[in-house]
Amino acid sequence: MNHPTMNYNEKRKLQREIDILDFAMTELREYLDTHPYDRDAVSYYQKYALMKKQAVNDYTMKYGMICIDTPGAAPDEWRWAKAPMPWEGGDC
pLDDT digit string (tens) for 1-38? Predict the structure, then answer.
């Protein structure tokens, strides 16, 4: 039987992974603004972008949308508004 705390911890771990990847990508974008020909940095950025995409997809499949522009959102309805708001226990 899955304990709610286990699911919460897994959810938070996945959120943290997404946050870390997002931070790394932000730093790399800023670096690439001044070093646009650094192939290693471009390669790292692409690697982290794929990792973040997978992590966001995993999160979305397990827990619902993590951000308003999550890939795979239904085009015929605005699911973001249907998700619990942060004050209702949802994520922001």
Answer: 455 566 789 999 999 999 999 999 999 999 999 999 99
| C-beta neighbour count of 70 within 10 angstroms | 15
Q: What is the pTM of this model?
A: 0.71
Q: Cα–Cα distance between 54 and 70 in angstroms, integer?
A: 11
Residue where the block lists tokens 């070093």: 35
Helix%, strand%, coil% for the chain, nearest 5: 70, 0, 30
3-state secondary structure 13-47: HHHHHHHHHHHHHHHHHHHHHHCCCCHHHHHHHHH
Q: Which residues have a Cβ under 8 Å from the Cβ of 18 and sit 6 or more positions away? A: 52, 55, 56, 59, 66
